[in-house]
Amino acid sequence: MKTQNSNASLFGAAAALVAFLVTGLVPALVYGGYMGLMLAGALFGHGTSDVLASRIVTGAGMVVGTLATLSLYLVVGALVGHAVGAAVRRAAPATPESEDTEHRAL
Protein backbone atom coordinates (compact mmCIF):
# COMPACT_ATOMS: atom_id res chain seq x y z
CA MET A 1 0.00 0.00 0.00
CA LYS A 2 1.55 3.24 -1.13
CA THR A 3 0.72 6.20 1.07
CA GLN A 4 1.65 9.83 1.11
CA ASN A 5 4.31 9.07 3.72
CA SER A 6 6.08 6.69 1.37
CA ASN A 7 5.92 9.27 -1.42
CA ALA A 8 7.60 11.82 0.83
CA SER A 9 10.19 9.24 1.86
CA LEU A 10 10.95 8.41 -1.76
CA PHE A 11 11.28 12.09 -2.60
CA GLY A 12 13.66 12.55 0.34
CA ALA A 13 15.74 9.55 -0.74
CA ALA A 14 15.91 10.88 -4.31
CA ALA A 15 17.04 14.28 -3.06
CA ALA A 16 19.64 12.56 -0.87
CA LEU A 17 20.92 10.60 -3.89
CA VAL A 18 21.44 13.85 -5.79
CA ALA A 19 23.14 15.38 -2.74
CA PHE A 20 25.41 12.33 -2.50
CA LEU A 21 26.38 12.55 -6.15
CA VAL A 22 27.19 16.26 -5.77
CA THR A 23 28.92 16.32 -2.40
CA GLY A 24 29.68 12.83 -1.16
CA LEU A 25 30.91 10.67 -4.02
CA VAL A 26 34.49 11.89 -4.29
CA PRO A 27 35.21 11.94 -0.53
CA ALA A 28 33.68 8.47 -0.18
CA LEU A 29 35.97 7.14 -2.91
CA VAL A 30 39.02 8.86 -1.41
CA TYR A 31 38.48 7.71 2.17
CA GLY A 32 37.42 4.22 1.05
CA GLY A 33 40.58 3.99 -1.04
CA TYR A 34 42.65 5.13 1.90
CA MET A 35 41.01 2.46 4.05
CA GLY A 36 41.76 -0.13 1.37
CA LEU A 37 45.41 1.00 1.15
CA MET A 38 45.84 0.72 4.90
CA LEU A 39 44.24 -2.73 4.92
CA ALA A 40 46.34 -3.91 1.96
CA GLY A 41 49.46 -2.60 3.68
CA ALA A 42 48.58 -4.50 6.83
CA LEU A 43 47.83 -7.71 4.94
CA PHE A 44 50.55 -7.74 2.30
CA GLY A 45 53.14 -5.26 3.55
CA HIS A 46 53.58 -1.66 2.49
CA GLY A 47 56.32 -2.38 -0.04
CA THR A 48 54.25 -4.69 -2.24
CA SER A 49 52.23 -2.15 -4.21
CA ASP A 50 52.60 -4.15 -7.45
CA VAL A 51 50.72 -7.17 -6.12
CA LEU A 52 47.34 -7.63 -7.78
CA ALA A 53 45.73 -8.66 -4.50
CA SER A 54 46.62 -5.33 -2.87
CA ARG A 55 45.02 -3.48 -5.77
CA ILE A 56 41.89 -5.60 -5.43
CA VAL A 57 41.72 -4.87 -1.69
CA THR A 58 42.14 -1.14 -2.38
CA GLY A 59 39.37 -1.20 -5.00
CA ALA A 60 37.12 -3.14 -2.65
CA GLY A 61 37.77 -0.52 0.01
CA MET A 62 36.65 2.18 -2.41
CA VAL A 63 33.46 0.27 -3.17
CA VAL A 64 32.72 -0.36 0.51
CA GLY A 65 33.36 3.28 1.42
CA THR A 66 31.08 4.48 -1.37
CA LEU A 67 28.25 2.07 -0.54
CA ALA A 68 28.42 2.83 3.18
CA THR A 69 28.27 6.57 2.58
CA LEU A 70 25.49 6.21 0.01
CA SER A 71 23.39 4.13 2.39
CA LEU A 72 23.83 6.74 5.11
CA TYR A 73 22.73 9.51 2.74
CA LEU A 74 19.70 7.51 1.57
CA VAL A 75 18.51 6.55 5.05
CA VAL A 76 18.85 10.07 6.41
CA GLY A 77 17.23 11.54 3.29
CA ALA A 78 14.25 9.19 3.53
CA LEU A 79 13.89 9.99 7.23
CA VAL A 80 13.96 13.73 6.61
CA GLY A 81 11.52 13.39 3.71
CA HIS A 82 9.15 11.36 5.87
CA ALA A 83 9.35 13.90 8.72
CA VAL A 84 8.80 16.88 6.42
CA GLY A 85 5.89 15.14 4.69
CA ALA A 86 4.23 14.35 8.02
CA ALA A 87 4.75 17.92 9.25
CA VAL A 88 3.26 19.40 6.08
CA ARG A 89 0.23 17.11 6.27
CA ARG A 90 -0.39 18.06 9.90
CA ALA A 91 0.03 21.77 9.19
CA ALA A 92 -2.30 21.75 6.18
CA PRO A 93 -6.00 22.14 6.97
CA ALA A 94 -8.16 19.11 6.40
CA THR A 95 -10.01 19.23 3.10
CA PRO A 96 -13.76 18.99 3.57
CA GLU A 97 -15.70 16.45 1.56
CA SER A 98 -17.41 17.83 -1.49
CA GLU A 99 -21.11 18.62 -1.28
CA ASP A 100 -21.88 16.16 -4.07
CA THR A 101 -21.10 13.20 -1.88
CA GLU A 102 -23.39 14.49 0.87
CA HIS A 103 -26.31 14.87 -1.53
CA ARG A 104 -25.82 11.38 -2.91
CA ALA A 105 -26.16 9.95 0.58
CA LEU A 106 -29.57 11.57 1.01
What does this protein structure show overall?
The chain has 106 residues and is mainly α. The chain has a domain at 25-89. The protein has helices at residues 4-44, 52-91, 99-105. The longest helix is centred in the first third of the chain and has 41 residues, at 4-44.
Note the gap between the termini: 32 Å
Q: What percentage of the residues does DSSP assign to strands (E)?
A: under 5%
The tally of helices reads 3
SSE sequence, one letter per element: HHH
Helix-residue proportion: over 70%
Provide a compact summary of the structure:
The protein is an all-alpha fold and 106 residues long.
Keywords:
3 helices, 106 residues, mainly alpha, 83% helix
Give the topology, please.
Blueprint: H1 4-44, H2 52-91, H3 99-105
Helix pairs in contact: 1-2
